Amino acid sequence: MRDTAAGSDAGTGDKQSSRIRRVAMDNGHAGNGNSAGLSGSGDPHVQEVVRAAHEELRQLMRQRADIMKRIGTVKQTIVGLANLFGDEVLTEELLELVDRKSGGRQPGFTKACRMVLMEAEKPLGAREVCEQIQQRIPPVLLRHKDPLASVTTVLNRLVEYGEARTIVRENGRRAWQWVADPAESGFGKTPEGIRQV
Q1: What's the pLDDT band for 190 if we cut at 50, 70, 90?
Q2: 20 to 30 A Cα–Cα from 169, which one of 24, 56, 90, 141?
C-alpha cells in the first residue's frame, strides 16, 4: 500500500513540475540564465510558478521525512535482529547498509556515530555517544583532537540528513535519537519527560 501511495505522490509531483516548466516557458522564463533585467515580482504568472514550486518543494520535503523515518525503522529492526541472532544472519550488502560491515578496517567516524545512535535504546548526549565509541572502537576517536566537538558536529549533520532528531532533556541538555517510527518498531521509543526539538 505504501508503494502505491508513493507512486501516486510521485506522479502528482511530476505533473506539478511539468506545469511549473510549462508556465515558465509560456511566459518566456525558460530558465536559460538570461533573466537579467526581468522583474517578475508583480507578474501573476511568475507568482503562480513560485507558488507551485513552493508547494511541490513542501510535498517533497514531507515525503523525504517519511522515507527517512521508514529507513530508520527498517535499519533499526535489522540491527536489533543482528544483535539477537548475530551478524551472520545478514548478507554482506545488508551489513554495509546498516554500517556493521567489518572488513578488517575500522568504520568511519560518521558510521560509528550512526551505529551508536541506531543501537541505542534511548536518546544519547554527545558525551554518551563519545563514550560508546570509545568502548567499541577506540581507534576512531584517536584521529580527532576534540572528539566531543567532532561527535556533536556529526550528530547535527545526521539531523540535517533526516537520520536523527534532536531532543531536549529535562535538564535542558540536548540529546540525539535515531529517527524511526516507534509504532512500527520495538526500538527507538521516546521516553517521557523529553520533548522533540
Answers
A1: very low
A2: 141
